[in-house]
Amino acid sequence: MSGGSNFVAPGQYRHLRACMVCSVVQTQQKFIKDGCPNCEDYLNFRGQPDFVDDCTSPVFEGLITLRDPKNSWVAKWQRLDGYRKGVYAVKVSGNLPVEASEMLAAHNIEYRPRDGSDINQD
Amino acid sequence: MSTSNLLNHGYDVDEDDQDFDTGHLDQDAEGEPDDEAPPAGGQPDDDDEEDDEEDDEEDDEDDEDDDLPQRKRARRPPRNQFLDIEADVSDEDEEDPDEDEEDGAEAGFIADDADRPELSDLRQYPRDDHRHRELDRKHEAEQAEDMEQIAAGFKERHGRSARRRMEDSQVVPRRLLLPSVNDPSIWGVKCKPGKEREIVFSILRKQEELANTKTPLQITSAFERGNTMPGYIYVEAKKQADVMHALQGVSFVYPMTKMILVPIKEMPDLLFVMKKAEITPGTWVRFKRGKYQGDLAQVENVLASGLEVKIRMVPRLDYGNGTDVDDPSGSKRKRNPFGKSGSLAGRPPQRLFSEVEARKNHAKYLSQTSQGMKKLFTYLGDEYEDGYYIKDVKLNLIQTENVNPTLEEVSKFASGGDDGTESLDLHALAQSLKKTISTYQVGDTVEVYDGEQNGLVGRAVSVHGDIVTLDVLEGPLKGKRTEVPFKGLRKRFNPGDHVKVTGGSRFRDEVGMVLRINEDRVTLISDVGMTEITVFSKDLREASESGGMETGGKYDLHDLVQLDATTVACVTKVDRESVRIIDQQGNIRTIMPSQIASKLSNRRPNVATDRNGSEIRVGDTVKETGGETRSGVILHIFRSFAFLHNREETSNAGVFVCRTGNVATIAAKGGRITTNQSTGPDLTKMNPAMQRNGRSPDASAIPPPRTGGRDKTLGQTVTIRQGPYKGLVGIVKDATDTTARVELHTKNKIVTIEKVKLGFKDLHTGAIKPYQDFMRPGGRGDGGGYSRSPSMSSDRPSSWGGSRSPQSNFSGPRTPAYSLGNKTPAWLSSNDGSRTPGYFPGSKTPAYGMDGSRSSYAGNKTPAWNPSSRTPYASDTDRSTWDAGSKTPGRPSLDSFMDSNSTSANPSNNNSSYSARTPGASYNASSPDFIPPSYSSKELSAPTPGGPISAPTPSALSAPTPGPISAPTPRDAYGGAWGGPETAPTPAPYGAAPTPGASGSYGGGGASGGGSRDPRGGYYQGAPTPAAGYGNPRTPGVWAGGDDDEIRYAEPTTP
């Protein structure tokens, strides 16, 4: 994403939201302005505050700052390899709206929830 | 260059092809193709190269694929030149056609170049043309295969590139992602708890700042686990130095402390996430913040995102009461009373929404809408439905785990209905409670109601976590052992079973009989209250005890209980379901046992100080210094409050509270010695006798004769006559000059006590003597006489009354006598029995005054007695002399009496003794003494005089003389009294006998005991009586006198 720094000042923490698809964490404002750095191609967040609200969640746990997605085991484990550098959440709660799931499906992307519900699948 | 170019190019070629096609028959012959050919031939080459480059760019892995087409192309040119076919192929999907057409075009052009001569031939030989076509068809078929391959290849390539990100992560299962040694390591670093997020972002910033410098961060990632692992952040890097570098200058993280290298095995655990329990409508949750903090709420609905829920709560409204009604800002109004959101104390109680109340003050903020059967109100911006407060809340505002709703709370959500319990969705509640604790215990009979083994009944033999192992009791599986998960089980009871409620509800510990069972709800009738109770079967056990009222068992009367952090209370009444308490503020309340946080046991001794600074403990008796000046025994001390108990109070079971600073000690438990300077009431000051003594405690008293060698008191059986151990019997184990260590019979304890506080038991007679007497040589054994004297006296009762008084008088004189030894002894003697009080006072002035008879006495005696006796008293020095004198006479008499008395008959003796005594009496001191002795024996009378005479006279000399003189007279009076109590008293008898006696004794003086005795004998008859009389008053007078007398007596006797 071009949008400069991913840094968020402590005062802004309450505006933080995590993308339910890729778990990237940024402020709501940034989601609206710049979209999701990873999912923007399939889900058009940019300029759609309502859609951002639906597809991102303020309820998330564990923050990861990812500097080297290719070599990081953490990224691999979290299935973040191939994503951009930035801040991600370990767990994101919330249910992705149906439209968003359909949009992903249209791009042959299987949505895997990041709320821990898949823990027993492997 | 991109595919679009390729496409365009392909399209061009296509056009060319068409041209070529069309011209194939007509134009080609013209040789135009020659012109076209070179550029065409050149272009394809370029295209190929570019294509390859692109492929390379796009996907390195596809090198091989890229090579293939090249080879094909190399092969193709010689064979094929027909373009129609290529055109057909071009109908295939976009990307493939590119290639196809390219290839086709290339092939065509190249072929053209190469085969031009042939072409011309073909034109000339149409048949050949036909053959070629056949050949072409073959090639075409072959090529089609190739094309498919290529298409597949492209599909693969492009398809993958489009989907790459997701597909990779989806395809690889997590177990293949487990970390290996080649992966970077993870270090855990301590940090300030709560600052984890901040640190992660700080690292991010640092990483961004240094990204394009010479020293970028070398870590691969850093993360935190918030609540799972507070106080730690984790950094993933190849080298530890990189971690240090990354964390340098970051606040709140402490890389200098020990860094933990996370073992590879544990790395996945660090990122383990657990899905929270799904929230479904009906779930019980608790509200986290504000006025409704901690309140139970029920989820009505879960919003689509799963992040917001609609909940139902019992509202806490005050409907604007107590606030400015006209203030329109409802929210403000609502907030203000409970502005300090931390304190929940002032919030209104939970009550269903009341339309009436809302209208009263806030009609304009109330609007009503109807939805079918339900009434929906909007009041001050909030919605109320059926009386419940309906609210949409974010998930993070409610607590979804460990809710543990109680039946009471849940019953508030019971919709209407008289029988709240029934209308409850107990099943939902059961579900939410299910996860809490295993309530199954070994031995419970359980029933499986869910799952494959539905209907199985068995007895639990072990419980492990969620699994209950049970022995099947019924059915085909009988006798088998099986394991069943907790959730499909319920306890099984039969109507009529006697059960006890074990937990979960306010009916805890209730015992009763099962009436009916509905699924897992059991209705029972309580043994105690005879009321019906419905509880979950899981909360029941078979009761072993019958009908016990267990609630009371927890708290007993006078228990100290803790209500909340700052309040304690004392139980004043225990009821079946309630406990009445008085708290430290003195408030009296009736509460449920469940409101009691805990029972406080007085493990360590609670000590406080009273108003005077002396220490008070539980069990001490204290008195309020102010207020109602109630006194009581301390039950409990809590900080500065004391819970007192006074049996005589009727309210609150006699319990009341006061501050420890407002009480003064009356008596410390176990006679604990309060500090010396303690200002508790000084008992010595209250006791006139003590006070007198107090002036010269020992100085004036004659110290007991000292004897060398072994302390006489050792091994003696003693009674303690004063102090905390008063009345106890013990044996002297060790002694110093003034104190003795006494081993108590009762307490198996050795205490140190001043010797003067001991009474020594006479080995022979069993009489008890004060220390002074005990120590006096010859003192022993005399006591017996004394004791008898009283018994003797008992005969005379009726007449006594009058006569006694004299005796008392006697005692008076005696006292002095006593005091001679020491006043203390007098004390001691008093201690012996009833004497104490009577004694002293008696002997001393007060005693006299006391009895009515005495007073009359006084009349008689006073003159004589008082003067003489008192005088001596007054002056200490005198006393000694007195005492000596007085006693002497008394004693001898005693001794003699003793001996003789026992033998002689009382009455006669008495009579005689009377007379005799009188004389003794006249001696002041002696007289009393005498009297007692006189009782005992006929001889008494005689001895008395003798005894007294001998000793007394000399010592008495100064004082005694007067004493006797004056005394006698009264005695006469006494004598009269004796004879015919009141009337008789007059002088006659007395006068006659006494005087002589007295004189005789005097005359005899100390010279000879023997002589004196004889006279006694003579006197005897006369004397005894009086003695007897004494006997009555005996106690004091007699004893004392006796003691003193004995000693002297003994002396004389011995010689």
Short description:
The complex is a heterodimer of chains A (122) and B (1055). Chain A has 122 residues and is an alpha+beta fold.
Describe the structure.
- The complex is a heterodimer of chains A (122) and B (1055).
- Chain A has 122 residues and is an alpha+beta fold.
- In chain A, 23% of the residues lie in helices and 19% in strands.
- Chain A is built from four helices and five strands; from the N terminus they run ββααββαβα.
- Chain A has helices spanning 28-34, 49-55, 73-77, 98-106, and strands at residues 16-19, 25-27, 56-57, 60-66, 86-92.
- In chain A, the strands form two sheets. Chain A has a three-stranded antiparallel β-sheet with strand order 2-1-3.
- Chain B has 1055 residues and is of the alpha+beta class.
- Chain B folds into eight domains: 3-169, no CATH class; 185-270, Alpha-Beta Plaits (2-Layer Sandwich); 284-328 and 345-411, no CATH class; 437-492, SH3 type barrels; 494-548, SH3 type barrels; 555-669, no CATH class; 707-755, SH3 type barrels (Roll), CATH 2.30.30.30; 772-1053, no CATH class.
- Chain B is elongated and about 170 Å long.
- The N and C termini of chain B lie far apart (155 Å).
- Classes of the chains: A alpha+beta (122), B alpha+beta (1055).
- At the A-B interface, strand 4, helix 3 and strand 5 of A face helix 6, helix 7 and strand 2 of B.
- Chain B: Residues 278-305, 439-466, 492-520, 615-640, 711-738 form the KOW domain.
Task: Chart the SSEs and their pairings.
The complex is a heterodimer of chains A (122) and B (1055).
Chain A: E1 16-19, E2 25-27, H1 28-34, H2 49-55, E3 56-57, E4 60-66, H3 73-77, E5 86-92, H4 98-106
Antiparallel strand pairs in A: 1-2, 1-3, 4-5
Chain B: H1 3-25, H2 32-58, H3 63-75, H4 83-89, H5 95-124, H6 126-171, E1 185-190, H7 196-209, E2 221-224, E3 232-237, H8 240-247, E4 260-262, H9 267-270, E5 284-287, E6 296-302, E7 308-313, H10 330-335, H11 355-362, E8 366-371, E9 374-379, E10 382-385, E11 388-394, E12 398-399, H12 407-411, H13 420-423, H14 426-434, E13 445-448, E14 457-464, E15 467-472, E16 481-485, E17 489-491, E18 498-501, E19 511-518, E20 521-526, E21 532-536, E22 540-542, H15 550-554, E23 560-564, E24 567-574, E25 579-583, E26 588-591, E27 598-600, E28 607-609, E29 615-617, E30 621-624, E31 631-638, E32 641-645, E33 655-659, E34 663-667, H16 683-686, H17 688-695, E35 717-720, E36 729-735, E37 739-744, E38 750-754, E39 758-761, E40 768-770, H18 771-775, H19 782-794, H20 797-821, H21 823-832, H22 835-843, H23 845-850, H24 852-874, H25 876-903, H26 906-922, H27 926-936, H28 943-950, H29 952-956, H30 962-966, H31 968-979, H32 988-992, H33 994-1004, H34 1009-1022, H35 1024-1053
Antiparallel strand pairs in B: 1-3, 1-4, 2-3, 5-6, 5-12, 6-7, 7-11, 8-9, 9-10, 10-11, 13-14, 13-17, 14-15, 15-16, 18-19, 18-22, 19-20, 20-21, 23-24, 23-27, 24-25, 25-26, 28-29, 30-31, 30-34, 31-32, 32-33, 35-36, 35-39, 36-37, 37-38, 39-40
Helix pairs in contact in B: 1-5, 2-3, 2-5, 4-5, 5-6, 19-25, 19-27, 19-35, 20-21, 20-22, 20-24, 20-25, 20-27, 20-31, 20-35, 21-22, 21-35, 22-35, 24-25, 24-31, 25-26, 25-27, 25-28, 25-35, 26-27, 26-31, 26-33, 26-34, 26-35, 27-28, 27-35, 28-33, 28-34, 33-34, 34-35
GO cellular component, one term (chain B): DSIF complex
Main location (chain B): nucleus
Biased composition (Basic and acidic residues) (chain B): 113-142
